[in-house]
Specification:
mainly beta; six-stranded antiparallel β-sheet; five-stranded antiparallel β-sheet; disordered C terminus
Length: 177
């Protein structure tokens, strides 16, 4: 049976502490659960785009509006607080590979980039995926394996739930914002 096409952004492989990070109203895109966040030049945070892994510091996991009320996602151009998972060396996440390219078991230990997607305004969940077309040439993520507990999650197909870690992060990089 084919792997299900159901992107959910980055999901932590293990639970851990959440940290509140501020997002100002200059954020031009909706932030959903599982979106990577990068520090912006003004000290706030915004959603990371493909190619921005060196400055990714957190994964969005919960949201509060400017009045402190819990919300499902943070709408574009809206200030608020994101309860976020820090990306630290060795921290593992699960992310689905995208449509169009099959992923073989030989992808383990290869690097790849992520593909940005808009969060669902119904569920609040991210639609980020691993870009399977640049496995071996992308640099943002390192593929460590596939999620063995998932049903219908076979190598040799698209939409594989992969275990990854960030190759370089805002915690370990000297890259400037």
């Amino acid at each position: 049976m084919a792997n299900a096409d159901s992107p959910k952004g980055f999901r932590p492989l293990e639970e851990g502490p959440l940290f509140p990070v501020s997002v100002d109203a200059s954020n031009a895109t909706t932030i959903g659960k599982g979106d990577p966040l990068e520090m912006e030049a003004d000290g706030g945070y915004g959603r990371a785009e493909a190619g921005d892994a060196a400055v990714v510091k957190y994964i969005a996991w919960g949201f509060k509006d400017s009045d402190g009320n819990s919300i499902t996602y943070l709408p574009a151009s809206t200030a608020g607080t994101v309860n976020a998972i820090p990306i630290t060396p060795g921290r593992k996440f699960v992310i689905q590979s995208n449509t169009g390219t099959t992923v073989a078991a030989t992808a383990v230990n290869a690097t790849a980039d992520f593909v940005a997607g808009n969060a669902s305004t119904t569920s609040g969940v991210s639609t980020y995926e691993l870009d399977a077309s640049d496995i071996g040439t992308g640099t943002q993520l390192r593929i460590l394996g596939k999620l063995e507990t998932a049903e219908d999650n076979a190598w040799g197909e698209a939409h594989v739930d992969l275990i990854v870690e960030f190759s370089e992060t805002g915690t370990t990089s000297a890259t400037s914002v």
